[in-house]
Amino acid sequence: MLHVKGGTLVTAEGSKRADILCGADGKIAHVATTIETPTGCDVVDAAGLLVMPGGIDPHTHMEMPFMGTIASDDFYTGTAAGLAGGTTSIIDFVIPDSRTSLVDAWQAWRQKAQKSAADYGFHVAITHWNDQIYHDMKTLVEECGVNSFKHFMAYKNALMVEDEAFLHSMRRAAELGAICTVHAENGDAVAYLQQDLLSEGRTGPEAHPVSRPAAVEGEAAHRAITLAGLLGVPIYIVHVSTQEGVQAISEARLRGQEVYGEVLPQHLVFDESVYEGSDWLKAAQYVMSPPFRPKHHQAALWGGMMSGQLQTTATDHCCFCAPQKEMGKTDFTRIPNGTPGIEDRMSVLWHYGVKTGKLTPEQFVALTSTNTAQIFNMYPQKGSLAIGADADIVLWDADAERTISAQTHHQNVDYNIYEGMTVTGVAKKTISKGHLVWDEGDLRAVRGAGQYIARQPKRRNVRKPL
Ligand code: DUC
Ligand code: ZN
Ligand code: ZN
Ligand code: ZN
């Protein structure tokens, strides 16, 4: 048992002074203004700290096989790093190859994730369509605790889904009470522009953003929303990075369509200038998709979060070390796409969002935890501080500073995109299922302590089709 004493509770609904008692079952046993410490119960001093639901990162790629290599953070190192940054749950992605059934792939990912130090769930990627997939989706939703599917409109000749298959998948998911998520970039256009650039001899990382301009995301976001609208089903767009994307989502929501959008903190902080300069590796370290954009897109992303048109933040945490990035030394299209960041999401969002006055602490909780729990139907088990919820809690020091560096981070990767950045807002202590796993610099993550989050289907208001 753990008594979190003397802190200020912050949830998506509001803030109040209160104590929390975490039970031996890993759940919140009691919440009250003052609680008497039961005998034999450890006390965690939260005086002067904000006590918030642990972060949920709904978009990570631990040990993901991708672009001829495997992401370097595995389920243990990646989730442990998350705990050090206040994130207590992830939703990762099962990426089936064309020879493996969805259910077998899900099983293989469950196996890999056994080493997780924090709780985890899975979205399952649908890359094509056939009768077996139709049946497997039902098994996944009804027997495997999967209530979301992923679609890549990018990565032609690899993960890219055709529109017809996407429609089949969206209809099937809605029938089952699952939600579809989508990486919105026009994969045909990207492939075309990549070839164009290579044929002009533009082989370096500075060509990467040129091959995936904002319009490529805008078109795909519009198309995904239109296709979902044809069927009257909800859609969740991952890593929205452009004004065009925000606009497409906002307009659809104003029409009454159920559309959600996710933001990555790195898109709020970095712009396309990261690809300039003579240091090849440094530029390659920022190669991810969607790429970093001209600066003006950041205002649209902030506006979307402040107004509630964008609901979640994630990291797309996908680590590749220098030798992996160097696979694309002579051809930018072969640089493994991905940036690390699970450990830094909450601090970076607090520093640039709450400290600047753009977001309230309550909005911060909504954006880092509660909205995700609600959309993916884990609420109130996750994303809340209610009695009976999982005791996943972060004790936040709103005034402490830390300087981010690969020298001190816990992510299994040899660089940090935020290297040298000093941020205000630090996870002082993290509690996972009632256990203190991060205590002011002391990481006590336990390999295998993380449990699978079986997510139930959610019957949604299927709207009238367009
Ligand atoms: N984008 C990345 O940068 N990495 C993993 C997959 C993705 O869509
Ligand atoms: Zn059949
Ligand atoms: Zn993506
Ligand atoms: Zn991703």
Question: How would you characterize the overall build of this protein?
Answer:
The structure is a single chain. The protein is an alpha/beta fold. The protein folds into two domains: 2-52 and 392-404 and 422-443, Urease, subunit C, domain 1 (Roll); 54-375, TIM Barrel (Alpha-Beta Barrel), CATH 3.20.20.140. 32% of the residues lie in helices and 22% in strands. The chain is globular and about 70 Å long. The mean pLDDT is 97. One zinc ion is lined by residues 59, 61, 316. One zinc ion (ZN) is lined by residues 131, 134-135. Residues 50-437 form the Amidohydrolase-related domain. The modification N6-carboxylysine is found at residue 150.
Distinctive features:
alpha/beta; binds zinc ion; 2 domains; 22% strand; nine-stranded mixed β-sheet; eight-stranded parallel β-sheet; single chain; binds dihydropyrimidine-2,4(1H,3H)-dione; TIM Barrel; Urease, subunit C, domain 1; globular; 14 helices; 466 residues
What would you say about this model in short?
Helices cover 32% and strands 22% of the residues. With 466 residues, the protein is α/β, with parallel strands linked by helices.
Write the layout of secondary structure elements.
Layout: E1 2-10, E2 15-22, E3 28-32, E4 42-45, E5 50-53, E6 55-60, E7 65-66, E8 69-70, H1 75-84, E9 87-94, H2 102-113, E10 119-125, H3 131-143, E11 148-152, H4 163-176, E12 179-183, H5 187-199, H6 208-211, H7 214-231, E13 235-237, H8 243-254, E14 259-263, H9 265-269, H10 280-285, H11 297-307, E15 312-313, H12 322-325, H13 345-354, H14 361-375, E16 393-403, E17 422-432, E18 435-439, E19 442-443
Parallel strand pairs: 1-4, 1-5, 6-9, 9-10, 10-11, 11-12, 12-13, 13-14, 14-15
Antiparallel strand pairs: 1-2, 2-3, 5-16, 7-8, 16-17, 17-18, 18-19
Helix pairs in contact: 3-4, 7-8, 8-11
The structure holds dihydropyrimidine-2,4(1H,3H)-dione and zinc ion (ZN) (3 copies).
One zinc ion binds at residues 183, 238-239, 316.
